[in-house]
C-alpha cells in the first residue's frame, strides 16, 4: 500500500486563455524526495504556487494526507505542515544567522513577528536554534551577520528556518539555483540529510542534483505532465530528452 502524502487530481490553472498547468494528476509518496523538472515555461512554479495557495486552481483538487485542501488559505496550508522555501534567499540580512533561525521559531511561543520581544523571552529558543544550525552544518556561523554569508550558506540557513517550522512536506524551489559546483554539492548533501523522516518536493534544473538524490521525477512540458518515474526511466524517455535537452541524443543520461 503506497503512503501518499500529497495528491493532485486534474489540477488546472488558466490565465485568460493561457493554460499554465494542464490537468495534472500527481502523487508524492511520504518519505520520498520527489522532483519536478521541465524546460522554462513548463509550469513548475505555477504548480508550486497552486500547492501553497498563492494561486487558486481553475479546476481540480489538491489533497494533503487525504484531506481536500483545494480551498484552504496560505496560512492554513503552512499550519498543516506544507512549508515552502523560496527560490530567492528569504533571510534577514542584517541579523545574525542565529537570530534568523530564532525568528522562524517564534511561532512556537505564539509571538510570531514580534521582533521587539526581549532577548530573555527569546533565549529559550537558543537551544533549538543551535540544533537546527547543527543540522544544516552552520554551527560555526551562528554569530555571523547574514549578509556576510556565502550564497550557498544562505540557502542552508533558509532550509534551517524552514525546518524550524516543522514541515511535514518541504517544498524547495530551485534550491541550487545560481550556485557554483562546491555549493551545489554541499546543498545537495544537505537536502539528502534533512530528508530523513521528511518528505521533499523540489523544483530543480540541475540534472546532477536530481539524478543523485530523487526517488521519483515528474516531467512537465507546456503545463502538462510529459513523463514520470525514476531518473533512469525519465532520462531514457525520448520525449523527455527532446523536450528537456532539445535533442534525441542521450544527453540527459550523461548528467548522472
UniProtKB/TrEMBL annotation:
Entry GO MF terms: ATP binding; ATP hydrolysis activity
GO cellular component annotations of the record: plasma membrane
Domain ABC transporter: 6-247
Protein name, as recorded: ABC transporter ATP-binding protein
Keywords: ATP-binding, Cell membrane, Membrane, Nucleotide-binding, Transport
Annotated Gene3D superfamilies: P-loop containing nucleotide triphosphate hydrolases
UniProt cross-references to SMART domains, sorted A to Z: AAA
Pfam families (UniProt xref): ABC_tran, BCA_ABC_TP_C
Amino acid at each position: 500500500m503506497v503512503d501518499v502524502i500529497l495528491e493532485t487530481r486534474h489540477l488546472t490553472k488558466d490565465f485568460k486563455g493561457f493554460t499554465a498547468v494542464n490537468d495534472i494528476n500527481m502523487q508524492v509518496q511520504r518519505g520520498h524526495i520527489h522532483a519536478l523538472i521541465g524546460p522554462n515555461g513548463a509550469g513548475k512554479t505555477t504548480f508550486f504556487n497552486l500547492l501553497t495557495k498563492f494561486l487558486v486552481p481553475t479546476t481540480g483538487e489538491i489533497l494533503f494526507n487525504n484531506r481536500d485542501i483545494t480551498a484552504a488559505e496560505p496560512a492554513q496550508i503552512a499550519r498543516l505542515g506544507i512549508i515552502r522555501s523560496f527560490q530567492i534567499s528569504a533571510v534577514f540580512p542584517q541579523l545574525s544567522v542565529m537570530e534568523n533561525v530564532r525568528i522562524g521559531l517564534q511561532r512556537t511561543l505564539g509571538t510570531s513577528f514580534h521582533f521587539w520581544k526581549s532577548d530573555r523571552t527569546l533565549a529559550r529558543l537558543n537551544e533549538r536554534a543551535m540544533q537546527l544550525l547543527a543540522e544544516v552544518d552552520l554551527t560555526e556561523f551562528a554569530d555571523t551577520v547574514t549578509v556576510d554569508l556565502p550564497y550557498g550558506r544562505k540557502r542552508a540557513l533558509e532550509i534551517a528556518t524552514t525546518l524550524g517550522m516543522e514541515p511535514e512536506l518541504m517544498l524547495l524551489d530551485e534550491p541550487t539555483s545560481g550556485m557554483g559546483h562546491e555549493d551545489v554539492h554541499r546543498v545537495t548533501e544537505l537536502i539528502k540529510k534533512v530528508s530523513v523522516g521528511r518528505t521533499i518536493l523540489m523544483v530543480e534544473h540541475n540534472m546532477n542534483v536530481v539524478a543523485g538524490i530523487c526517488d521519483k521525477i515528474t516531467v512537465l512540458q507546456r503545463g502538462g505532465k510529459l513523463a514520470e518515474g525514476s531518473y533512469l526511466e525519465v532520462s531514457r524517455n525520448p520525449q523527455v530528452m527532446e523536450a528537456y535537452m532539445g535533442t534525441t541524443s542521450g544527453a540527459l543520461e550523461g548528467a548522472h
